[in-house]
Amino acid sequence: MKVNNICCIGAGYVGGPTMAVIAKKNPNIKVTIVDINEERIAAWNDEDVSKLPIYEPGLAEIVVETRGKNLFFSTEIDKAINESEMIFISVNTPTKTYGKGKGMAADLKYVELCARNIAEVAKTDKIVVEKSTLPVRTAQAIKSILHNTGNDVNFHILSNPEFLAEGTAVQDLLNPDRVLIGGESEDAIESLANIYGSWVSQERILRTNVWSSELSKLTANAFLAQRISSINAISELCEHTEANVNEVARAIGMDSRIGPKFLNASIGFGGSCFQKDILNLVYIARSYGLNAVADYWEQVIILNDHQKRRFSDNLISTLYNTVSGKKIAMLGWAFKKDTNDTRESAAIYVADHLLSEQANIAVYDPKVPAKKVYGDLNYLETRSDEENKDLVSTFDDPYEATKGAHAIAIMTEWDEFKAYDWKKIYDNMKKPAFIFDGRNILDKAEMNKIGFEYSSIGK
Ligand code: UDX
Ligand code: UDX
Fold first, then answer.
1. Ligand 2: which residue has its CA nearest to atom 20?
2. Which residue owns the Cα nearest ligand 1 atom 5?
3. For a Cys staple, 119 with which of 150, 227, 238, 446, CB 3.0–4.6 Å?
4. Rounded distance, CA 297 to CA 280, Å?
5. Distance (Å) from CA 25 to ligand 1 centroid
6. Residue 253 in contact with ligand 2 by CB distance below 6 A
7. 273 is catalytic
């Protein structure tokens, strides 16, 4: 099928950058991104690109280049569905917070709503592409909805999982390790392969069956997260044995079978995908009665929770077993650098624990607004919104955030943190001045020389 028009439902961290790059590389295809959230669409259409709803290095430039030419943001979902030959579903699939599978399974209600919406309004044949990460065999459900409720038009369903990482989304999209397309119809697969083919070489475009494609996404995220939990487990052992986790990571990473990437010990992984996808994998395995498989992967999450808790426990015990009434400055709130995304960020859970011990938290993050910080804490419902407001303050300036603090906790590895005038920060803090470096980004010797009591992960 020749594709002249693409519609993408969901203008989020995945849909936005992916479609912007597809539009840039396919100037003859009209790409329309739709979303039920009017505020979000308005932000995507804002003349001032610093107001785009998501921050990704390089994204604003591509939006400027393509917006209004062949890239459009709109809330007119039905119209965009009707006009296009290919529809990407890129809506969120959060972990269920109710009913069967609560806390484990993916909530597919938005995906189902999209499928029903497409079936209802489509008057011509469509290729429907699953971009959202979904449990294996979801395509079957989408197919059933489309075929049973559609207006006698043909639908082909493809699975095309996204492997971009936030903070490097544009680079990952421009130079992907691979593009994965799962499907039954060869014609539909080739239509999508052609779109990627404008900038990705054909050897990097893998064609598989739908189920392999769906499961590969969950598996890739599970393996990546497993590496982090593995090195984090070793970091705790290092702290008890005087081994240094950076040295261990370097030594094992030089084994070409292991490789050097994704071995940074940290405060624990966050982000919208790792935890959700592993929980999903665990849930699916259990639903087939595969308890050994489920238990194996669940351990990755258990260790990650342990790592976050260990960090806050260590902070409290080092501050003479109490943080009550003490000012703790948190540098970074995003789940990693170069993004304004805070979903599942370790900072949220560490802050929540410290707040339960009556600490006063001062937050500075270069890209995360105050509204998000409070929203994340209020969402946990550990205490009232008013209490969070009283105990937490946010700052636009790191020197103000750290003034008078008893301790600094580094939660995100933002590059700018390394370049601060740490002597000035030290002079303005309560003594002894503590730094808990959850990302191992500062130099211990240098910090000790200034006078800080410095601790990091796995050393
Ligand atoms: C989401 C999923 O989290 C991820 O599993 C999947 O791989 C891709 O989609 P992300 O783009 O980061 O990732 O989500 P988010 O930023 O929340 O964007 C989803 C968008 O879909 C939101 O803007 C939301 O308003 C929109 N949406 C949701 C719809 O337009 N219609 C719906 O019915 C539901
Ligand atoms: C991940 C996958 O990498 C990507 O392929 C998939 O499409 C979506 O999920 P993302 O969550 O955006 O991407 O970021 P990623 O770089 O994987 O980082 C996830 C978390 O792991 C972050 O909190 C990060 O700080 C942490 N991390 C990463 C570590 O703690 N140590 C590392 O060595 C690497």
1. 269
2. 133
3. 150
4. 10
5. 23
6. no
7. yes
Q: Are 75 and 85 in contact (CB under 8 A)?
A: no
Q: Which residues contact 255 (CB under 8 A, 6 or more apart)?
A: none
Spell 443-458 as b/e; 16+ CB within 10 A means b. eeeebeeeebebbbbb
Whether the CB-CB separation of 34 and 80 falls below 8 Å is answered with: yes
Q: Mark residue 79 as left, alpha or beta (left: phi above 0; alpha: psi -120 to 50; beta: remaining).
A: alpha
Ligand nearest to the CA of 15: 1
Residues with CB under 6 A from ligand 1: 9-15, 35-37, 40, 90-93, 110, 113-114, 131-133, 162, 272
Give the CA radius of gyration of the chain: 23
In the block, which residue shows the tokens 């929203």? 375
Q: How far is Cα 279 from Cα 154, in angstroms, rounded to an integer?
A: 34
User: What is the residue-wise DSSP string for 229-285?
Assistant: HHHHHHHHHHHHHT--HHHHHHHHHTSTTT-STT----S---SSSHHHHHHHHHHHH
Distance 421 CA to ligand 2 centre (A): 29
pLDDT by 10-residue block (mean), the chain, 459 residues: 96 97 98 98 97 95 98 98 97 90 90 94 95 84 88 92 96 98 96 98 96 94 98 98 97 98 97 94 95 98 98 98 98 97 97 98 97 97 97 98 98 98 98 98 98 97
pTM, entire model: 0.94
The answer for residues whose C-beta is within 8 angstroms of residue 266's C-beta and 6 or more apart is 228, 232, 307, 346, 413, 438, 439, 440, 457
**Whether 43 contacts 51, CB under 8 Å:** yes
What are the start-end ranges of the H helices in 15-108?
15-25, 38-44, 59-66, 77-83
Question: Cα(91) to centroid of ligand 1, in Å?
Answer: 3
Q: Ligand 2: does its nearest atom lie under 6 Å from the Cβ of 407?
A: no
270 C-alpha to ligand 2 centroid (Å) = 7
Query: Can you give the pLDDT at residue 106?
Result: 87
- Atom 3 of ligand 1 has which residue's CA nearest to it? 92
